[in-house]
């Protein structure tokens, strides 16, 4: 059973100080100079915002960086020497992760461990302890409760903190969480404040539930049968294909692999974020493109998140964080789309003919 | 058998470069590390990520058969950055290879049956792997029919092997070129692959068909095979969606619920007909 404890605000501050002093990287939602709230390294808990606005970008970049080196190479006269990137990383503690972002990382774990264990992803996962703070209910774009999560979901977190008078009710969820508590035992007191936390949790859930009530099973049933549904024909009219939705998404994990030569003799092979919304994403060498319209690409994104990934890995590839809605320059609104799809009956008019390529 | 991390390739030496056509080449490659060479094994139909350092990675099937040990071959057409760099490689040069990945043709299931191979253009590359494999284990199979076509005589790949297959009494080879693609010396068929399949009239009883080529060729060949009595689960093909990782992570090769790299690249026609038309 999850251990319940209490940590005061000042004790959490001291814990963060101890971490930094011990050389552990401390990360949390903190302001950039331009005012953006992003997950970044901080030297003090004072920089970190434990509640309020959702950070503009998600936590995924700490496990799947926008660009990372897979290997370096040196070549001379046809001979090549390859050095794979190391996959052991320095310890890192995230304090103030939003539960939707912690849950996203746990969802992506599944594909990263699908028969082939991605050492770079899991190297960073192993080095990272995630201390989440239950969210107060976000803004009008949030819909975590419609995808089976909640502002206080424990999924993906090692420790979940719920704000209460004078500090936090703490739920210690994993071995990594236990290790953190053990290393800073003096900062915690036994028992927790579950009662006091309940009011906060209920209020936050109620707030998000008001944004959207949809049944993921119904949406999946529609998607699995509705490939040819007319709704996909006009779905992308407002989409620029910029991929911003995918880049801010905590669960989108598509990537590209490219070589970047520094000179003729040496260079790096990298993986970079990529997106199924880009026109060239599926372009064949022959010039043939299986998803040649933006409509197809939006449909693919919806299907991957709400039908394909759940069927394959038992997880919806969306945590309802609402970032894709906040960031879209065309005003595309996933919350609206889900609402619409959830109301459509499964089984679509078969317009296009299925068959051989 | 990975070195360091999943994305680090084995190093391979280019042992031979064969000019197949004006724009298509075959590279014969062997592992530089003898330990890897000794352990390496694959199945007909599997693919890999081939790389030229500084240019990047590219996905191709392994065009040679697992029964032919000590090397692998890949055939490619120059269409982009990586294939352009591959064209610059000479004997003795080093390139990278990750694999083998994906599923394979069900040779166990095909044992004891007749095989019909149908290919168009460079689509012969993955089919050739199965042909070589089957010919190396010739006793295990009944009739072997190969129907191969290209736009013109100059576009036919693996010409040396076509001659070899033509001479074998235990192989029925039909070669064809599109009308207008013939030369004065051409002794093969003139016409599109589906028509030649109809003419060749392979028996569907106790037979499997392996089909690979341009989408348009496959589209018109499948109804012919159906007419000849081939059931959908006796017709196999291999899909060539764009890939990057090859191991089910990068999200590029999805066709509906299918990851071509992990669930494929080999599918039978029954499986393909269930997929949304996004390939």
Question: Summed up, what is this model?
Answer:
The complex is a heterodimer of chains A (357) and B (279). With 357 residues, chain A is an alpha+beta fold.
Which descriptors apply to this entry?
A: 357 residues, alpha+beta, 8-stranded mixed β-sheet, 4-stranded antiparallel β-sheet, 10 helices, disordered C terminus, B: 279 residues, 6-stranded antiparallel β-sheet
- The pLDDT mean of chain B sits at 95
What is the N-to-C order of secondary-structure elements of chain B (H for helix, E for strand)?
A: EEHEEEHEHEHEHEEHEHEEEHEH
Beta fraction of chain A: 15-25%
Strand order of the largest sheet of chain A: 3-2-6-7-8-9-1-10
Oligomer: heterodimer
Provide the structure class of chain A: alpha+beta
Radius of gyration of chain A: 22 Å
Which strand-content bin applies to the residues of chain B? Answer: 25-35%
**Could you describe the largest sheet of chain A, including whether it forms a barrel?**
8 strands, mixed
Major sheet summary line of chain B: 7 strands, mixed
Q: How many β-strand stretches of chain A?
A: 12
Shape of chain A: globular
Low-confidence sequence ranges of chain B: none
Strand numbers in spatial order across the main sheet of chain B: 10-9-8-7-11-12-15
Distance between the termini of chain A: 53 Å
Count of extended strands of chain B: 15
Question: Could you tell me how far the N terminus lies from the C terminus of chain B, measured between alpha carbons in angstroms?
Answer: 31 Å
